[in-house]
Specification:
about 100 residues, mainly alpha
Length: about 100
């Protein structure tokens, strides 16, 4: 079965209501340039339950989403560009960044 949207990340049995999350969770990591990103314990547990294939699918979906978001931005900023120019710039930005 192929899941879409957030369903691929969190199955129905793993979902929490906003009230449950707000009542139980507090921020335990600082968010600044001096902090390496740390995976939240709840997210880590969800990922541990995934099979290798499910995690691979998640990576592929994230890559696709990233490419679509960059392409959408580029189409807005450069309406005169053709598909080949958009695809080339998407690849360049993924490999080299925006600078």
């Amino acid at each position: 079965m192929v899941l879409s949207g957030v369903d691929w990340a969190i199955s129905a049995a793993e979902r929490f209501s906003c009230e449950e999350l707000l009542g139980q969770r507090t921020m335990k990591y600082r968010l600044d340039d001096g902090q390496i990103e740390v995976v939240d314990d709840m997210v880590a547990e969800v990922l541990r339950r995934k099979t290798t294939a499910q995690r691979g699918t998640m990576v592929g979906e994230c890559n696709r989403t990233m490419r679509l978001l960059i392409a959408g931005h580029l189409r807005t900023e450069h309406p005169d560009w053709n598909d080949a120019q958009i695809e080339s710039e998407v690849a360049r930005r993924i490999l080299l960044g925006t600078d």
